Amino acid sequence: xxxxxxxxxxxxxxxxxxxxxxxxxxxxxxxxxxxxxxxxxxxxxxxxxxxxxxxxxxxxxxxxxxxxxxxxxxxxxxxxxxxxxxxxxxxxxxxxxxxxxxxxxxxxxxxxxxxxxxxxxxxxxxxxxxxxxxxxxxxxxxxxxxxxxxxxxxxxxxxxxxxxxxxxxxxxxxxxxxxxxxxxxxxxxxxxxxxxxxxxxxxxxxxxxxxxxxxxxxxxxxxxxxxxxxxxxxxxxxxxxxxxxxxxxxxxxxxxxxxxxxxxxxxxxxxxxxxxxxxxxxxxxxxxxxxxxxxxxxxxxxxxxxxxxxxxxxxxxxxxxxxxxxxxxxxxxxxxxxxxxxxxxxxxxxxxxxxxxxxxxxxxxxxxxxxxxxxxxxxxxxxxxxxxxxxxxxxxxxxxxxxxxxxxxxxxxxxxxxxxxxxxxxxxxxxxxxxxxxxxxxxxxxxxxxxxx
Length: 453
Fold this sequence. Notes:
The protein is mainly α.
């Protein structure tokens, strides 16, 4: 006699996963606890409800935290230190201001979109936001639009493309930590993922940025932004040096990927090594110090500022993603990955759609795009192996799902609200809608790409 497609144990596992995630959300949103504590409690709740022994749950939690922090922690820390250098030296601001000066008012939204994609490549979303939005707001203020309502709409038509550019690279383009982690977990090819990610990211950013801004900005009123920009009082580095530092990690990784095609050539091993994100970011950090700060790089004030900004952000991010890794590992240990792989085979669910839906669910529940990515990729390897789908496209589908509908449990929601000056309702209308468009359009383009490549 055939066993039923979904057993009582399967239903118990799904209910356990949902209950654990709900507990984490309630502790974070209602209890005002840090995601680190909420996600750890959620991980233990999933394991206990699923019937795992407490000792096994503890081992899974330790493994999950260790895998994520050990595998991604260096990339996170090096990316944050590079972001701090670009921020505090004024290099990113100089690049953005130069580009905006070269464009007129009509081209300014497209300029901010391009700047955001460029600056956002090596940086966390929050870092890129802190770097870019004060510059964009200042540029919008200088446009001298006559009445206040039109002036607010004009500002948003500059700001939303910047947010779209930062959002798409955060979700879709390595060496951003989220997509990079997914590449490693699913065994995807880094070079192909970067190429496919750029092909999906550019049209997605255009739709979610300049196009969407024209639809949603009329009637939105802005208050003075709560937050401001702060950097060191030093000479701004040259634009060429700033551009070189922003692009260097991507160029090193891309060159390394090309080096794999020429393994017989002398010195090709060095090129291949350059594709390792830790090496690429470490080299960039070492070059950024003298290029961005010159002879002042040895001053205690400079060093203290850079590493204080880096470590303050790194602590919160590493704790959150580590706890997300713990939740992921408990879900895997409880058997959720195997269950999803079986359901995909049985019901012919598209692995791309499944990866997107899992990421969407975690994103809505936990608020963090990075945690959503970590959890989704942790339970998808069996699905990828069993279906034969391109792991690179699964990485992009999960990335698209991880940014779906930012709302009140996402720190980015409040950061955008503070920097842009929108009300809570208008933040939903602009920022939350923008993230949802990135997610849905990104998935649609990934599905189309799956029939081409």
